[in-house]
Amino acid sequence: MRVIVAEDVLITRQGVVHMLESSGIHVVAEAEDASGLLESVGRLRPDAVVLDIRMPPTHTDEGLVAATALREAYPQTGVVVLSHYVEPGYALRLLQGSEEGVGYLLKERVFHPAVLVDALRRVTDGETVVDPTIVARIMGRKRVDDPLAGLSPREREVLALVAEGYSNRAVAERLFVTDRTVEAHMAQVFSKLGIEESSESHRRVLAVLTFLRS
């Protein structure tokens, strides 16, 4: 896998690069700002990009803006955004309009190489990955009008794991049930959320978006 890492803090960027290369990932370029990242992606066409949510010059949302631009221009390039902030709104903003092949992880996950590498492999396969901490925050907040109210506890549990980026088989393994059982739960989720028949990946993304918006 060929990856570009964009992070303005040198020591953090070098740490991510070292971690990825130690895990067998080929880091083809580094960037310290959004413009450098976009130039490198256009020139090198990597499989995926890892970037900070806040980058120069204002350190507000340049990473999200760059991620959106990348997904529009190079939809085959996976994007993993790293952030210090447990903010579901950022994750939702990242997913809207280009829902497949993107991930949002808290920076603390960078200390666990397997988590970042797994996220990269998932987004390059067209999956969506949302940090488990954000999923837990969404599950725990109170809602006045909850679109998930009709889901059973098990269906909510399955949808939460799907939101984290797990495949049906991985969900089945975590819950100690069969793949067919997970498929049945997801069919009920789609039905109860009013998600019409389409490709399986598209319906899963729509279900995750409904989850994040709730």
Describe this structure in words.
This protein is an alpha/beta fold and 214 residues long. It folds into two domains: 2-130, Response regulator (Rossmann fold), CATH 3.40.50.2300; 142-213, Orthogonal Bundle (Arc Repressor Mutant, subunit A), CATH 1.10.10.10. Helices cover 52% and strands 14% of the residues. The chain is built from ten helices and six strands; from the N terminus they run βαβαβαβαβαβααααα. The protein has helices spanning 10-22, 34-44, 62-73, 88-95, 113-124, 132-140, 153-163, 168-175, 179-192, 200-213; strands spanning 2-6, 26-31, 48-52, 78-83, 102-106, 128-130. The protein has a six-stranded parallel sheet, with helices on both faces. Helix 7 crosses helix 9 (179-192), helix 7 packs across helix 10 and helix 8 (168-175) crosses helix 9 (179-192). The chain is globular and about 45 Å long. The mean pLDDT is 85.
